[in-house]
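> @MW can you paste both from yesterday?
MW: sure, first one:
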Amino acid sequence: MNNNKFYELNKYLHTLGEQGICLAFSGGIDSALLLVLCKNLNITAVTFQSPLQTEEEIDFTADFCKKYNVSQKIITLNPLEDDKIVLNPKDRCYYCKRLLFERIKDFAAGMKLTNIIDGTNFDDLNAYRPGLKALQELGILSPFALFKITKEEIRSYAKSLGLEIFNKPSTPCLATRFPYDTRLDLDSIERVKKSEKYLKGIGFTENRVRHHGNIARIEIRPENFTEFLQHSREINAKFKHLGFTYVTLDIEGLRSGSMDL
């Protein structure tokens, strides 16, 4: 971990704080670390509540903001009302980010907060992230990316600060569970939510349920395969009760962005 990066980052954040900071706070470790670093500055966190997030994540953000005494605004909206998003094209993330951050810009202007920041890190710049274009168009600042701070460095620094969530698994938007060009609908999204919550409840805390029509493709860590198979009968029964016809275990295991292949 390069502490010089974080020294420069902290100086930069204090400069932004002089004119006010509006943080897009999803509850992931990236934006959570930014919140902690800015907690004594003029900052307001904005979290979106929509069908594409779980209730547990929204509750987590509220508790986290209270813990660090940071003001939070929860904005409720439904991206599925936008045809460009609901059709789930390959650049869906671009349209979704535009929608969300346009709302943040309106809120920040009303609160006279000059600088809008998000948790995009340096690794994200090398991944398939069509939403980054929207951030650039709207003038959103990404401090971690600016100072070339990687995910591993973020987790390491968070650990050094004593943050219990330093190793918190990523929780990407639920739209990522569906193949591109598959129309998104509330029933299917709810099916995924309930499926993943069930798997977490029986011990598979890191999982993805990829929704391929009537097929559920489950991703978990390979070291959990044996335990998963021991529970296969009840998992199969639960998933069929939730509306899937076929239930599969992906033998490549849990990985980010498997729908981007």
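MW: second:
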Amino acid sequence: MRKTILRDVTLLNVTNRRRFFAAPAQFDSDKARVTLDREETHHLRKVLRLTTGDEVFVFDGEGDEFLCVVEESGREAEATLAVRQRVPPAQAESPLDLTLAVALLKNEKLDWVVQKATELGVRRITPVMTKRADVRVREEGETTRRRIVRLERLALQAAKQSGRARVPAVDAPIVFDDLLSTSFSASSAAWAEKHLMFAERGGRGLAEVFSELTAAPSRVTALVGPEGGWEDAEIEAARERGWMVITLGGRTLRAETAAITIVALLQHLCGDLV
């Protein structure tokens, strides 16, 4: 009885969960056991000093979270945990499937955007190569791959710290014209999916646009430009492809500030940010 009571208290106290990440492939076929990688094992043993019999929570990055018990915590490189039960994530996912497509920014700025956008519940982050982007990517090489791995790592850390069980996907940089060509989904109803380009000129107000909708969209792609702004040709190309051009007005924001402001506004209008 005492053990059950303790487990119930742990489940309710979601802010103090000892959370670890394991990809779906790290679970066995019937999800009875999970093996942590070396880094998570080090955190379990050396940082938190947990041992056999201690309860922890493991999330798989795809939305599922599990109450587990440390089964083996000896000198092995990877700790093995017994899965007790599937539990609600520490924080529920937003109902809004939000993709943030943001012009390539310098390292520390894009790092910050990925971290904060993850905390705010985005599902996907797509860096975009625009005419006035802060960063140029000439070809996909080792440097680009290392950069994506770093951004994925930042997204994972932010998801862990913010209580999310889903880790946003981080795409390789895509050319602006390719984004316009591939962004629309044939399977989604027009009302359910919206593609919004945020520009410093030539658009309508966000409140005005949403006041005309019969229902809040369930899927949104928000495209945010670079520090130097969009070129006229880019705005027109997006408009011709069916994107709605939005101008926030009022203040001139840095690109990274605009990106996070827009995510917060959309989560308020369509998601779970109240």
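> thanks! The chain is about 35% helix and 20% strand.
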